[in-house]
Amino acid sequence: MDHFDVAIIGAGAIGLAIAQRLTTADFMQQRSIVTLEQEATFGQHTSSRNSEVIHAGIYYNPGSLKARLCRRGKKLIYEYCQLHNVPFKRTGKLIVAGEDDFAKLEALEQQARANGVVDLHWIDDTELRNLEPAIQAHSALFSASSGIIDSHAYMQRLLQQAEANGALFSPRSRILEIGRKGDRFLLDCEIIASGAPIQKDIYRFSASHIVNCAGLNATEIASRTEGISPASIPQIHLCKGDYFTYRRKSPFNHLIYPVPDANNTGLGIHATLDLAGQLKFGPDVQYVESARFDVNPDKARDYALTIANYFPTITTDDLSPGYAGIRPKLSGPGEAEADL
């Protein structure tokens, strides 16, 4: 039976970053690492279906794990991108508010400062018109350290480095069960061969350590692992968000965000740019029972009405269905934001 020192389950941004980091750690020299992914390649779920924004650490509760990791992670990811030639851009973000939401924007600024985000500054409507003439708002907060990243290039670079340092990558590999024998885990893995007809084989191997980075399937993997109490497995709630692309040339140079939703369920339908200059709007918030990635084109009208609060010239015809993503959340509809 093949044996690995570490088996990482899931090749999204988190799983790949852990693989890359472990292969460069002194204590992991001469140790074996495998990263398993049920899809045909890396980053097919949450890691590639998002806004590709590098956040500053503004939104989370002060002192929370999310706030600390976001602020530290921002610094580290910019450093990594510069060192390893991963495309990114410090676009800056404008969080805009109408007169009725000004108090919420003030509270958000105080929260950001409590989180150690000190590069925010206020912009009035005159300065805002100079920066973004197409935007209509009473005031805005400008986050200088917010930016965008090429998420595919980022994950690809992580995988290249991990493999160059000896880690194995095993796509089309779905975990069925994880048993225990002494101090080792026994993993039953279904290998799905490409082509027609589709062939499936069972591969059993052992590992000294397992890192569960399965994202949307993380709790399912945990429930299939011998020795883990069901009571210790948190329930996750699947929160779907749709994106619409803007058919015209982008009028914006910065990321444009409204005041966030209550309990940080979502950050509002915001405007983000990719590195090619394509403008997209989203995501909305819809809790679902199972993961699905369709986008209902009939939502375009509601999107346009919401976006018009800060971008008044937008029309339904300006929007076309883009893509959808699923956020695995620890908090359900109407619940306060959960940290652990």
Q: Features of this protein?
A:
340 residues; alpha+beta; FAD/NAD(P)-binding domain; D-Amino Acid Oxidase, Chain A, domain 2; 2 domains; six-stranded mixed beta sheet; five-stranded antiparallel beta sheet; 7 helices; 18 strands; 24% helix; elongated
Short synopsis of the structure:
The chain is built from seven helices and 18 strands.
Give your account of this protein's structure.
- The protein has 340 residues and is α+β, with helices and mostly antiparallel strands.
- The protein folds into 2 domains: 3-47 and 152-232, FAD/NAD(P)-binding domain (3-Layer(bba) Sandwich); 92-146 and 236-329, D-Amino Acid Oxidase, subunit A, domain 2 (D-Amino Acid Oxidase, Chain A, domain 2, 2-Layer Sandwich).
- It is built from 7 helices and 18 strands.
- A 6-stranded mixed β-sheet has the order 9-2-1-12-11-10. Strands 13, 15, 16, 17 and 18 form a 5-stranded antiparallel β-sheet that branches. It has a 4-stranded mixed β-sheet with strand order 6-7-5-14.
- A hairpin with a 5-residue loop joins strand 15 (270-273) and strand 16 (279-282).
- Helix 1 (13-24) runs parallel beside helix 5 (151-164).
- The longest helix has 20 residues, at 65-84.
- The two termini are 36 Å apart.
- The relative contact order is 0.17.
